[in-house]
Description:
The protein is α/β, with parallel strands linked by helices.
Amino acid sequence: MTIKICEINIYEVELPLIKPYRISGGRLFVDKMDSIIVAITTSDGIVGWGESCPFGQSYLPAFAGGIKAGMAQLAPILIGANPLELENINHLMDLTLKGHLYVKSAIDVACWDILGKYANLPLYTLLGGRFSEHADLIGAFANGTPEEMVADLKQRRDQGYHIFSPKIGGEVSLDIARIQAIMAELQPQEKITIDANRAWLPDHAIQIMNSINDKTVYFEQPCETLEECLTVRRLTQHPIILDECIHTFQDLLWAQREGVAQAINIKIGRVGGLTKARQMRDFCLATGLRMNIEETGGSVIGGTGAIHLAVATPLRYRLATSDSTRLHTVIPAKGGYTYKKGTGIPPETPGLGIEPIMEILGEPIAVYTKS
């Protein structure tokens, strides 16, 4: 008997942040995330779970209302499809709705969860095998004065992190002071990525990066566009990570061909799910690009998918993985990855390895079945 999708339920959960978050020089402010969680039920009773959660509504061209509207277009055409045929599921979604990758991510991840449960294997096995016990997590902290950011770094260190990502981006002299203060606080075994979240113009990025003598420091997404980042690449020496401007495989291909970056931040929600993220991962392996493998935002549901893909990637190609789960006051699922001293350990149970807490999810906001 062929396994088929027979029902898709959509849930909406608000995830308040423990502490409001400012990035990109303070121009982007987030105090909560609106997460859309998807449950896909198959003809033999398997339920797969996925999550799409933009980091607020001004970080990327993505918002929760768009996910709900997109689901109304996608869910009906997937009823009756085989969720194990992941390439076909993505093909159907791309034929039905052009672009809007962030809408498709939760469906794709839910189908991977079904595949894992069907095969009785954890996702990391299906994504390439386990290359390490854990994935290193990033202790990120938001904009502030140099003193405030040093205090945040110390707090993240006390929580167990040893890789840090301070969010900066503002006036040139202030950003230089922030970076210098943070770097003066670093201990020998610690690593840092300076993340401007595309806040700088090219001339600002060039001045700031060239003022930092330690050329082992990564700078992440210094400017808005690929072209602006290419200008910065040509006039600086630090390794660059591209993040927010990499949406499609074509973006990645252009960046690699032009030599813009030495590493890529693959956010599963932004690129459309685990299927497309794995394609990007494999291209990076083949072309020598290192990676952060992360989720855009969201709960332990989305975060666990990123941990699975991260540990299924060879160590020498990995930088670290973000840890949005620990920013929130609401945890809508049991299980998932385990936090241990600044690392994430994936579950060994089949599929994604999470169990949603239905009392937190509440009633679905939409239900799609065969008409």
